[in-house]
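Following up on my earlier thread - several people asked me to post the actual chain instead of describing it. Fair enough. Here it is, all 215 residues.
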Amino acid sequence: MPEGFLIAKLSMRLVAVGAALLAATGCAPSAAAPMSASTSHAVLSAGPGPTHYTVQPQPAAGSCHYRYTSANQPLPDAACTPGAVNPRVNQADIASTICRSGYTSSIRPPAEITDREKRANAASYRYAGTLRDAEYDHLVSLELGGDPNAEQNLWVEPPSPGHRSGSGPENPKDQVEDRLHSLVCAGQVPLASAQEAIAKDWTTALTVVGHPGTG
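Reply from S.P.:
Thanks for posting it. Predicted structure:
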């Protein structure tokens, strides 16, 4: 019998024996599992929550820069104002916190605190308009479990396009917050999903949570 044939036959037997040993020891390679899309979410940091409020330090003057959507709606600087949540609010207790009538007024910081912060934050963003027309806004609103006075969750929100000068803050973001609050309290959107969506871009938040055109 030719030598090459014997070598090939021996090699095949060795491969078969190796495969049997691997199967017997449980080390046989398994079929690769199909990859699935990640369902993880970015986690917002938690602020101090409702406390004995004191004036919070703001980013250095001129260090923050507004962003604008294609429709010229204002968004905060993601580095200066990424958003922060209230550590005392979670999905399990929304009925006794954000979905309870009067909740936001019970934790809102007093004006003597936020007025000073607003002036300093306007300098951070180089906001040059009248402060009367700008809202010192909670990026993640109180009604969505946002932190009441964390510097990461507050920004001087300039007026939206079409705003009448001198008429005070009138921002469409407030309507988005109200709609998200209703969806969360109705059990149609998880609290964390609403928080993450509005922190990223309030103009697309309703679309991100699956309820476009309901603002």
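The beta strands are 45-46, 67-68, 74-75, 84-85, 135-138, 154-157. That should answer part of your original question.
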